[in-house]
Design brief:
The protein is mainly alpha-helical. The chain has helices spanning 5-8, 25-36, 39-57, 59-69; strands spanning 2-3, 20-21.
């Protein structure tokens, strides 16, 4: 994935790990060519992207949010580790 600083704003991603962040149009285009030309790079970015999604939007983070919304995050019965699918 290639994005701009504005597109990455608010995301806990690291430049070069989950995505490339480029502000300059020429660098952005060069990154597109680099990623399209490298199966290895595509695979690495894909795996890092899936890891990001799991850490930030997977079952465990969703469970934490629901517990907080229901006021159960401090309840002893609900302090056990998150369930996994």
């Amino acid at each position: 994935m290639i994005t701009t600083p504005e597109g990455a704003r608010g995301l806990a991603i690291e430049n070069g790990r989950e995505a490339f962040i480029e502000a300059d149009p020429a660098r952005f285009a060069a990154r597109v060519i680099e990623v399209v030309s490298s199966i290895h790079l595509q695979e690495r970015l894909r795996e890092a992207g899936y890891g990001y999604l799991d850490r930030h939007h997977g079952l465990a983070p969703a469970q934490r949010v629901v517990r907080e919304l229901l006021g159960l995050s401090d309840h002893p019965a609900f302090s056990a580790p998150e369930l996994v699918a």
